[in-house]
Design goal:
Elements lengths: L9 H10 L1 H5 L12 H5 L6 H14 L5 H13 L9 H7 L11 H11 L1 H8 L1
Helix pairs in contact: 1-4
């Protein structure tokens, strides 16, 4: 039988929260959770691993431990309001299907609101 391992195991991650928190904060493993909530829904003990992972990520971010990929995604969101760049001809493609243009970025008002929500401290960490 062929088994694919992605290196993410919620049970092992929860164990590391209690046994090796600092090591976990400095690792990329913490950022592999896809927020599907499957572990929370299936937990026989009724704990909420997804919420624990969120709090742990917040702690890692406060300490400046944000891996390159999430840092790049957050930076892209701060620049354009979107998690991935929109190709320059994307609106043209949308027009071919009768869809309205969306533009390369969201409105400046929305970007300003987003920056307020993210906060200056996180913005400085992303730029570091």
């Amino acid at each position: 039988m062929f088994v694919v391992s992605f290196g993410f195991n919620p049970r092992k991650l929860l164990q590391r929260v209690s046994s090796d928190l600092q090591g976990l904060l400095e690792s990329d493993e913490l950022w592999l959770c896809a927020w599907c909530y499957r572990c929370t829904e299936r937990c026989p003990s009724g704990i909420q691993p997804t919420e624990i992972f969120l709090l742990t990520r917040n702690l890692a971010a406060r300490q400046g431990h944000i891996p390159a990929n999430p840092r790049a995604i957050m930076g892209q969101i701060m620049r354009s309001g979107r998690s991935i760049p929109v190709p320059s001809d994307f609106d043209e493609w949308r027009g071919e299907y009768g869809l309205p243009p969306i533009g390369a970025t969201i409105s400046q008002t929305a970007l300003d609101e987003q920056r307020k929500i993210f906060g200056e401290k996180l913005l400085r960490r992303l730029e570091a």
